[in-house]
């Protein structure tokens, strides 16, 4: 099992595990922890302000399930943030606006009030999370449907495109595709 944590805004979170990994996450920071053979860890808020973030649990391939536990942090200032047409993308991993990494996880922050087409291959699962569900729609713009604050949209192989997300100023969209 691999845990991917991404702190969006608010307070800070502390992490410690029995392998000696110690870290503090602030807004915009990312943490990968692979349990592998097994790991004991603790996560606790370390500020009075509530922390808002995403935590994704990823099932490892059979061949990777017994690896040694691993821990990696990526600080906000280490994450590339290309901008195009008023949309800033924090490319945590994967590919967005020409920047590549391992996973396909990106944060889109649109200041233009426009919309964003998310590129990708067919047969993808897209997890979209936003603070204000009233401002987000997924799917064909002509048939777009409202989503909840955390929504899963699956595209069909060769028959559907990745969702188009409609934005307004200061709206943020977190996208994970595989």
What topology emerges from the helices and strands here?
Layout: E1 2-10, E2 13-17, E3 22-25, E4 30-34, E5 41-45, E6 51-58, E7 70-74, E8 83-84, E9 87-96, E10 99-110, E11 115-117, E12 125-129, E13 137-138, E14 145-146, E15 150-154, E16 164-166, E17 171-177
Antiparallel strand pairs: 1-4, 1-6, 2-3, 2-5, 4-7, 8-9, 9-10, 10-17, 11-16, 12-15, 12-17, 13-14
Structure explained in plain terms:
The protein is mainly beta and 178 residues long. It folds into two domains: 2-77, Jelly Rolls (Sandwich); 79-177, Jelly Rolls, CATH 2.60.120. 0% of the residues lie in helices and 52% in strands. It contains no helices and 17 strands. The strands form five sheets. It has a six-stranded antiparallel beta sheet with strand order 8-9-10-17-12-15, with no helix packed on it. A four-stranded antiparallel beta sheet has the order 6-1-4-7, with no helix packed on it. It is flat. Mean pLDDT is 66; it is low at 101-107, 115-127 and 134-172. Pfam families: Pirin (PF02678). Residues 3-58 form the Pirin N-terminal domain. Residues 106-126, 140-159 are annotated as: Disordered. GO terms for molecular function: quercetin 2,3-dioxygenase activity.
């Amino acid at each position: 099992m691999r845990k991917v944590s991404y702190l969006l805004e608010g307070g800070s979170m502390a992490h410690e595990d029995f392998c000696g990994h110690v870290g503090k996450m602030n807004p915009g920071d990312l943490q990968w922890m692979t349990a592998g053979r097994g790991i004991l860890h603790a996560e606790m808020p370390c500020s009075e302000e509530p922390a808002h973030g995403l935590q994704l649990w990823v099932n490892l391939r059979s061949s990777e399930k017994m690896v040694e536990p691993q821990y990696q942090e990526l600080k906000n200032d280490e994450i590339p943030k290309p901008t195009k047409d008023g949309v800033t993308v924090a490319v945590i991993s994967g590919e967005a606006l020409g920047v590549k990494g391992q996973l396909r996880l990106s944060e889109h922050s649109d200041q233009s009030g426009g919309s964003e087409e998310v590129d990708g291959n067919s047969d993808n699962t897209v997890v979209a999370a936003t603070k204000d569900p009233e401002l987000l729609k997924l799917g064909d713009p002509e048939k777009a449907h409202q989503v909840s604050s955390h929504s899963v949209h699956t595209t069909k192989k060769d028959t559907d495109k990745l969702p188009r997300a409609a934005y307004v100023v200061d709206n943020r969209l977190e996208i994970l595709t595989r």
